[in-house]
Amino acid sequence: MVPGPSYGKFAEFYDELTGNISYAQRAQYFHELLKRYGPKQNTEDILLLDLACGTGSLSFALSDLGYDVIGVDASGEMLSVAMQKNMQRASPLLFLCQTMQELELYGSIDGAICALDSLNHLTNPQDVQEALERVSLFFSQDAVLIFDVNTPYKHEQVLGNQVFVYDCEDVYCVWQNTYHASTRVVDISLDFFEEEDGAYFRSSEQFSERAYTHEEICGFLENAGMVLVDFFAADTLEKPGGDTQRVVYVAKNRHLKQKTQG
User: Fold this and answer.
1) Buried-exposed string 50-85: b where 16+ CB fall within 10 A, e elsewhere
2) Helix, strand or coil for residue 214?
3) What is the tens place of the pLDDT at every residue in 53-63?
4) What angle, rounded to 10 degrees, do the helices at 76-86 and 57-64 form?
């Protein structure tokens, strides 16, 4: 397995720190895109991959809409949290510990979702390329890939060299960013402060995200044998603007180009 950040401590507090995200609404948005561009089947007949699924919140929300979901993530710590939640479900999901660029499934899938800027966590362009090629390899005839990415605008103007503070019930988190303009990479340093018996204990985590241009994304898809079907400003059906912070892409294997655009 390709080495990378474990997100070990981050996994412990990930759900609390992302409590502002409505996974039900995100799942519904992806559901609408799948109905528009994906295989014309009932949801229960669609095998859907949640790539870089983290703690599984989106996987479960998609499953609640009727999809047969497989969750994949490279972090054993993130998947440990997902499995704890999985045990409370009447119909548990399958979770696999794999990197995106070494994806290995047991058969074909009807669609794949890669959400919450997960591809940005691959700071080597070759890793992005390999990840998209692996997804394409397991696509069924009409399968669709939907993924979102943070934009160069967001990295430069929003994340940049900024500091964010999260004062949650179980943890106090200081999030510090360092921006490298030449590569559009943001180095992220997280400091967690946990209170126990009147004392605070500090732990840290570091990882990076890289922003890719629209042209780079299209190049990755082309080289992976895929074609761009559509793209939107996140959570909308509107085209991105110059200050869009996250873009959602819809792609299919290239052999479906005439069918998709015709």
Assistant:
1) bbbbbbbbbbbbbbebebbbbbbbbbebbbebbbeb
2) helix
3) 999 999 999 99
4) 40
**Residue 157 clears pLDDT 70, i.e. is over it:** yes
| Domain ranges across the chain | 8-151+213-261, 154-210
Fold of 8-151+213-261: Rossmann fold (3.40.50)
How far is Cα of residue 223 from the mean position of the Cα atoms in its chain? 21
Q: Token digits for 122?
A: 């691959």
pLDDT digits 0-9 by tens, 115-134: 999 999 999 999 999 999 99
Q: SS3 for 85-126, per residue?
A: HHCCCCCCCEEEECCHHHCCCCCCEEEEEECCCHHHHCCCHH
CATH number of this structure's domain 154-210, picked from the four choices 1.10.3720.10, 2.20.25.110, 3.60.15.10, 3.40.50.300: 2.20.25.110
Strand partners, 208: 187
**Percent of the chain scoring above 70 in pLDDT:** 95
- 69 in helix, strand or coil? strand
Q: Largest Cα–Cα distance of the chain, in whole Å?
A: 66
Name the pLDDT band for 6 (thresholds 50, 70, 90): low
| β-sheet with 199-210: strand ranges across | 163-167, 172-180, 185-196, 199-210
pLDDT at 4: 52
Within 10 angstroms of residue 158's Cβ, the number of other Cβ atoms is: 14
Six-digit token string for 253: 């294997």
pLDDT, tens only, 161-197: 999 999 999 999 999 999 999 999 999 999 999 988 8
